[in-house]
Amino acid sequence: MRGALAMMSAAMVFGWTPLAMGDLPPAPAPPQNPITESKRVLGKILFFEEQLSATNTMSCATCHVSGRAGTDPRTAGHPGPDGIPQNGDDRVASPGVILSDGVMNLLRDATFGLRPQVTDRTANSMINAAYAPQLFWDGRAGGEFRDPLTGSVVIPAGGALESQSMAPPVSAVEMGHEGINWVAVAAKLGSVKPLNLATNYTQDISQALGDSPDYPELFRRAFGDNAITPARIAMAIATYERTLISDQTPWDAFIAGNVNAMTQQQRDGWQAFQASRCNQCHVPPLFTGNGFRNIGLRPPAEDMGLAGVTGNPADRGKFKVPGLRNVGLKASYMHTGRLPDLREVLRFYAGALPQFPDNQDPLMDQVNVPPQAAVVIEEFLRNGLLDARVRDQVFPFDKPTLASERPQHRTTSLGGGTAGSGGLVPRLIADQPPMLGTREFRVGVDASAGSARARLGYATTPPAQGRITPIGFVGEITTSAGTGMGTFQWELSPALFTSGQIVYLQWFIDDAGAQGGTARSDVARVPIFCGTWGCPEACPTDVDGSGFVDSEDFGVFIARFEAGTNDADFDRSGFVDLDDFDAFVRAFEDGC
User: How far apart are CA 189 and CA 51, in angstroms?
Assistant: First the structure.
């Protein structure tokens, strides 16, 4: 009876429709975006698509891992709003991307420098998020979904999942770069092979990609034509997320009548959970009322939460109440991520950790978690609310393997180098997966002399005593004045490299203060690999086989064309004529 009253109370306070105990209905879907299989599988592909990010390093699934309750197992430090690390307002949240400008040159962030930026809140779960009328910790993703290009209303109500999915790809912290927009994101999808960076496809993804469709074709199957638009991307991802429903826990079976579905300790924990008033906010069967509460975790001045969205001072410090299903799989807890395990969470509710009273919810005075109750409540939360399908990542919670999850395909630093002025060894930065055919593989340098010539050397043999013996130099830049940093982007050409080949990179910087007048960065080991769709062919306009398309290729082709040799038959017509010249020029202008 108490649980039923709690659900009725939550319904009145937060305006949501209460569910019967132990009864999760089908996920609600707005009529403007009905669930179809072709749209669901497209959304699943997009959810795991690292090429949706500017650096090819981040996907939705990077921060939302099913096996960790739909949250991020990675943890990174954020110094909090004061920017000072190692004090009370610090957070533990998700690492994103290194700050970049509009053309993907590396920028030095005021807080994180040339390291990946960190989000200021932890990642909420996408599992069972279909039931939430508002998403994000502060509720800024509401039910009205507007087209990000036109501003027109696409879904008037029930579109929180669509609204939420639009933010990360155009965030310069999470997946994008400064000034990125949805036109650029959608255009990139049209030019890449779906999930080319992922391996170990799930069965449904393998079936969807079995006939080698490109993204325009996948959108045609899902929406009727091949237009790739931000609104359609949002609707596809949201459709997939609406199928991620966790409702097969021991507690579900127990409520359905199987009294032995939970152990005695879990049954005791369920009783203690209710007696301790936890169910007042974490309302069964979702174990969230989908409302917003200030539990006194931190002073509201550090993060206004819901008040930052509503503008209402009465909402200061309120954050979304997370669901507790599969909660034992998480790597950190609360919006700050500062509580590392369930035991610390229960200690907080028992009053053993500091609490801040400003605008604290009065319900907190009713929460009582004595030590003997904490033990069984933890067991109930950890295992009584565990859906084995989520833990084991089986359908619908299955996943392919991302490039970021494969150490064998990551660039690593081998150390070494030669110090320059000031005694610092320049640092090489290579943050993208080295997939063969990547047109703009980014390599940066930091901590070098300012306004200096820096050349990027490469070798195919390992370094000796921290130095490579370069085969050649792939590019040259001038480092920035004062900061001694710079960025070079080059093509991992199949004319130059092969899959499985290891390439070693090192920056050579002119520096009068260095031994011999040259400072050297650390050495990077770059494991070249082909995408899942196979190795690309060598660029046809790289006619001199250098691995780069440049003016020398144009000169070589002109000489062949004027001589009328067979290798100037660019269109393979059997004749060398002006059509070959025109075809070459068009391909040359495209870069390949």
Answer: 7
pLDDT tens by residue, 81-130 = 999 999 999 999 999 999 999 999 999 999 999 999 999 999 999 999 99
| The length of the chain, given as a count of residues | 592
Question: For residue 192, which of 531, 589, 540, 590 has the smallest C-alpha distance?
Answer: 531
Q: Is residue 45 a contact partner of residue 206, using CB atoms and an 8 Å limit?
A: no
pLDDT digits (tens, 9 = 90+) for 245-276: 999 999 999 999 999 999 999 999 999 999 99
Pairing status of strand 319-320 against strand 412-415:
unpaired
d(CA 19, CA 289): 10
For 91, other C-beta atoms within 10 Å of its C-beta total 25
Tokens of 474: 């792939």
Six token digits for residue 254: 């127990």
Q: What is the rounded distance in angstroms from the CA atom of residue 168 to the CA atom of residue 135? A: 13
**Cα separation of 145 and 30, whole Å?**
10
Q: Residue 31, Cβ neighbours under 10 Å: how many?
A: 9
Name the burial class of residue 367, with classes exposed (0-12), middle (13-18) and buried (19+) by CB atoms within 10 angstroms of its CB.
middle
Find the distance separating the first CA and the last CA of the chain, reported in whole Å: 70
Alpha-carbon span 213 to 65, nearest angstrom: 26
pTM of the model: 0.90
Give CA–CA dist 566/570, Å, rounded: 9
What pLDDT was estimated at residue 582? 84
- pLDDT tens for each residue of 350-389: 999 999 999 999 999 999 999 999 999 999 999 999 999 9
Q: Is the pLDDT of residue 7 over 70?
A: no
Q: Which helix (H) or strand (E) element contains residue 222?
A: helix 215-223
Instruction: Count the neighbouring beta carbons within 10 Å of the beta carbon of residue 427.
Output: 18
| Six token digits for residue 172 | 């310069």
Helix (H) or strand (E) holding 163: helix 160-165
| Tokens read off for 282 | 């974490």
The tens digit of pLDDT for each residue in 14-37 reads 333 444 555 788 899 999 999 999
CA–chain centroid gap for 375, Å, is 35
Q: Which residue has the tokens 């975006």?
A: 33
Per-residue buried b or exposed e for 156-188, using 16+ beta carbons within 10 Å of the residue's own CB: eebbbbbbbbbebbbbbbbbbbeebebeebbeb
For tokens 């009465």, the residue is: 314
Q: What is the amino acid identity at position 86?
A: Q
